[in-house]
């Protein structure tokens, strides 16, 4: 009969009553890519591999010139070129900004862990419906939550900085952008501000109403291009980059836009507009509805960081509501409150991504990390 040591007896008894973990309770190690390819049964698993490019077809994986952020390919070696030795990873929407190849080309060659369903993608061995991404050997983020956005590869030069150094670093990143004409802005807004419940309409910023995309123009009940940072606060016109920058242009009803005019932003007011419920204003300021207070703040933060003296126009925020034609906007202390009160939502995040993917190729950093505002303007 086998002889048991005292320690083995204790461990066995504790395991029997569930007080000592057995080997079955230890978390399974990530699958290799080869194992993932051999186990395409729809089960959930974490796969570890090296990023070797972006799949664009069943037998095609590219290593540069990435068209979007929707997929990546993993292999057990960073030098793998045979697509038969790769697993194709579907990048679900909440992870595209942080893990897509177009936004983060520096991922090429990095070893990462991805959790998802072992199912075909592009008619090829794949990992779909992904729920977690992490660099190999680190703790994955919570399910369906992307890694901290201030650590996106896009912001690599800014991560870890604060104050004036952060502002300068962000300016250096976001100033690289594609310029639009003022005519192109019309068509862009029909995409960036599309009503998620009606693809034929856009959502108006202050009014919050849904209006036909084709009802754009200058007549009553049309919508036009609202400059959240007014052209007169600079001043600048629509032939220069600030005047056509999508990150501060939004659709708005013609008459509401005219009433807002070039007012600064602040709490309070004793007048309302029948087509913009929830907004109040007075002689020197405009308070938008609660649902877009943070949106307004982050658009102004963007403009103050994007346009510095090197652009022959230095836009800044201050605590005044009487800025006239000076290149200033207020009220900074209130904008900071609104930023925290109304964090970025799905509509705002989608808008930021569409501007990056399809139009300007730059991002609003305060949508990706809204707490950067308190670091720059303490």
TrEMBL record:
Q: By what name is this protein known? A: Endonuclease I
Record's keyword terms, sorted: Endonuclease, Hydrolase, Nuclease, Signal
Q: Which organism is it from?
A: Lentzea albidocapillata subsp. violacea
Q: Name one Pfam family in it.
A: Endonuclease_1
N-terminal signal peptide: 1-27
Q: What is the lineage of its organism?
A: Bacteria, Bacillati, Actinomycetota, Actinomycetes, Pseudonocardiales
**InterPro entries per UniProt:** Endonuclease-I (IPR007346), His-Me_finger_sf (IPR044925), YhcR_N (IPR045939)
Recorded GO molecular functions are: endonuclease activity; hydrolase activity
Q: What are the Endonuclease YhcR N-terminal domain coordinates in residue numbering?
A: 31-135
